[in-house]
Amino acid sequence: MDHLQSIKLFVKVADFGSFSGAANAMDISRAVATRHIADLEGQLGTRLFNRTTRRLSLTESGQVYLERVRQILMELDDVERMVMARNREPVGILRIAAPVVFGLQNLALALHTYTQRYPKVVPDLTLVDRQVDLVAERIDVAIVITRQMSGTSAVARRLTTGCMTVCAAPAYIERHGKPTHPGHLDKHQCLSLPDEFRGGDLEFTNAAGTVQVCPPNAVIANNTAVLRQFALLGTGIAILPSYLIHNDILRGTLVPLLSDYKLPQFEIKVAYPARSHLSAKVRTFIDHLIAYFAESPGLPTSENTVNNSKHMCLQLEAA
């Protein structure tokens, strides 16, 4: 039998002073109530009630047991009310993981507007450029870019898309020239993410079709911000998220290359552990992120980055 149910019934029997009254209060038969108490006494190895034909009274052990379990049941009720309240109202620490650069550039405002609306939630943001295990690392929500999610016990919902831009510093181009075809990258110094982040060969597409290349690596790093620094220094050619180098290209410190070709877009998703009941803080934050990115103008693309760069150059020439 349910041990907790037996304890609750024991308290009712003590309060009513009879099995019949307790059974009626808990909507069970008197026989079932009697069996619950008998099982409870069997587990404890002692009698809890003195039974006579005229009255029912607690034994000394029963009195001690009643005082303790009554307090425990009251505390249990308090805990249940607290947990249910937390599921109704967003409150507590919200553990979030996100890629470093994306988090720095795109999450601050989203988190600010969320905490303005839900001030009882405390974001605990971890920026990390590696695969995350949501359950093992006790992460409530993770922002993931395409392949940056391990395991299958997670749900992922799309927030937005991004794209990559091939670029290099003017100093590098002056020394080594511009590649005009993806195949020319074999003769250049390339700055790359590890294979598990990059996803294998690069696919360049234009009107003539698709070209797959696997350029040699001069530098490998698991952080796009570091690769950007190498590119700015003229170390080599980098393929970086357009949102990261948008301003660099507008300023002319990086130059877009192979603009006639497109690389596949990547999806940016919000992932969370698969479970039937999400806490209010997780549920509301996911909804907030989806709405935030739906209303935002979108991440810079390689195409509009290049177009904006050309437009700025024309303005400077006209001036």
* Molecular shape: rod-shaped
The span between the termini is 87 Å
Sheet with most strands: strand arrangement: 4-3-5-14-6
Give the strand content.
Answer: 15-25%
> And the CATH topology of the largest domain?
D-Maltodextrin-Binding Protein, domain 2
Give the fraction of residues assigned to helices.
40-55%
- The first-level CATH class of the largest domain is given as Alpha Beta
Task: Write down the domain tally.
Answer: 3
Structural class, please?
alpha/beta
Report mean pLDDT, rounded to a whole number: 86
Going by CATH, the architecture of the largest domain would be 3-Layer(aba) Sandwich
Would you list the SSEs in sequence order as H and E?
HHHEEHEHHEEEEHEHEEEHEHEEHH
Q: Total number of β-strand segments?
A: 14
How does the major sheet shape up?
5 strands, mixed
